[in-house]
Amino acid sequence: MTAQAQAEQDLASLPALTLDPRQLGDLELILSGAFAPLTGFMTAADVASVTDLATLADGTPWPVPVTLEVPADSPGATADQVLLADPEGTPLAVLTVSERSASPRAAGLVQLAGPVEANRVPEHGSFRRLMISPEKAKAELGGGPVLAFATKAPMGARQIGQVHHLADLLGARLLLMPMVAGPAEVVRQPESLIRAILAATATLPPGTLVVPVPLAPRHRTPQAGPDPARELALAAIVAAAHGATHLMADGWPTTSGEGDDEIGTVSGLKATPIPVLPSGDWAYDPHAEVWRPLSQIDAGSEIGDISADQLGDMLDTGAEIPRWFAPDGVIAELTHARPPRSQRGFVVFLTGLSGSGKSTIARDLRDLLAERGDRQVSLLDGDVVRQLLSAGLTFSRADRDLNIARIGYVAAEIAKHGGIAICAPIAPFAEARARAREMVSEVADFLLIHVATPVEVCEQRDRKGLYAKARAGLIKQFTGVSDPYEEPTDAALVIDTSVLSREQATDALMAMLVGGGWITPEGEGG
Question: Is residue 521 part of a domain?
Answer without folding.
Answer: no
